[in-house]
User: What shape does this take?
Amino acid sequence: MAEIIDGKKISQQIKDELKEKTAALRAEGKIGALAVIQVGADPASSVYVRNKKNACAYIGIESLAYELPEETTEEELLKLIAELNQKHEVKGILVQLPLPKHICEDKVIQAISPTKDVDGFHPQSVGAMTIGEPGFLSCTPAGIIQLLKRSGVEIAGKHCVVIGRSNIVGKPMALLMLRENATVTVTHSKTQNLPEICRQADILIVAMGKPQFIGAEYIKEGAVVIDVGIHRDQNNKLCGDVKFEEIEPIASAITPVPGGVGPMTIAMLMNNCVQSIEEG
Ligand code: NAD
Assistant: This one.
């Protein structure tokens, strides 16, 4: 029976630590706001945006909501970002993705000042992370490192297999595990013999975006399994990329969906906001 890694509990601990830190910073006169920009009214994005605003309220950071209509042009969005870059009281700028198709996401990400890039998506943040320089870390991968560390999972020297190579999860995940001295293998949709490679993993991190794809044949006895996927199954219940029931008896520890990686992403976003306020 695997230990269930409780992302809800661990993210709450982190938010409580951040709440204390924000209060201490406020006492020193260090305050700041997170600007949250949403373009259009995608229901999933609205839920994420609401959760982010609630987390800000919980830890004591002001959030400024910019809810822009679907027809907003790329130029208008870039202009707003340029204004927010100039505002001293705005310490973090977050543009909720995905954006409507007529707006280039890369251009928008690159328009955010790296000093306010609390999502950690700007090429400068990614470059800094790659060479171990200070900067904002991508929230989901940074949250997974916290989940592992706070659950007592040793990373150094372990073989970590990451499934997925996206810019927001797979690639930064691999880099952060490397930084923690794991031996890292990155796999993707063109990888051959995926089950065989995954069976070599001491720590398997699954971010492939395929509902309940990974079954027992991918898991070494005693492996730690981190499931990044979020989907709704045919009964509209949340599920991950992993067949939880099948893997839980084989793994030594596993994250559930919901209540695993998901809550950590927001906790790490808050961590980046507090870091930004601290740096002034
Ligand atoms: P993505 O679609 O951008 O990337 C998926 C990756 O999986 C790709 O690199 C692809 O090569 C790889 N892949 C696809 N099929 C594969 C296969 N059969 N074998 C091996 N590799 C395969 O997705 P993403 O943005 O990285 O997100 C992955 C999942 O994580 C999604 O379900 C997403 O909703 C979820 N997600 C969760 C959080 C969170 O906070 N919990 C954050 C971001 C993403």
Q: What stands out?
A: The first strand starts at residue 3 and ends at 4. Residues 140, 163-166, 168-170, 187-189, 191, 194, 207-210, 228-231, 261-262, 265 surround nicotinamide-adenine-dinucleotide (CB under 6 Å).
